[in-house]
Structure prediction request, 184 residues.
Amino acid sequence: MTPVAGPDSAGSTIEIRVERVPQLFNMLDPFPFRERDLDAEAEAFIVEWARELPRGAPLSIIVHLPPDEALTSEAAGLPDAIRGYFALRARALSAELSELFRVGRVSLAIGILVLALCLGIAGLIAEPRLENLASLAAEGLLILGWVALWRPMEIFLYDWWPIAGQRRLCQRLAEASISVRAVP
Prediction:
């Protein structure tokens, strides 16, 4: 696989040149042609160029093939196969995002429970006659309680962004106009 060029002057087309259609797909994948995963290098190339294109612009992908290869049934099925692959990736990323939020909700419930227990215990041990030791234990429990909320806050504030961005990009690629061109 060799890039013909990156985005075109309009900024929305990714062009790829291959000698044979199977070069675009993972040949170890046992599924029929139209259901195969893209080759890791082909996927990385398409995704990297797509990331550089304007976000609102519709995408198009042009696959350049030798004339005899461009007339094969595999070449005719190439647009559906590529769109299907990225649609499947978008669904997988949606599932990953849902699972991350589920873990975040469970972690938040556990964190709130730990914080409440720590605050309760800290309130019970804060006796005036054991002031230094009790203060130290109470502060330690308070810190432990807030640290228990670290992971859920990390999930809800930061971890979901990259996954949602990848999903949007895969959805755009699944909706891309894909064509095959014969080139000598």
About this structure: The mean pLDDT is 86.
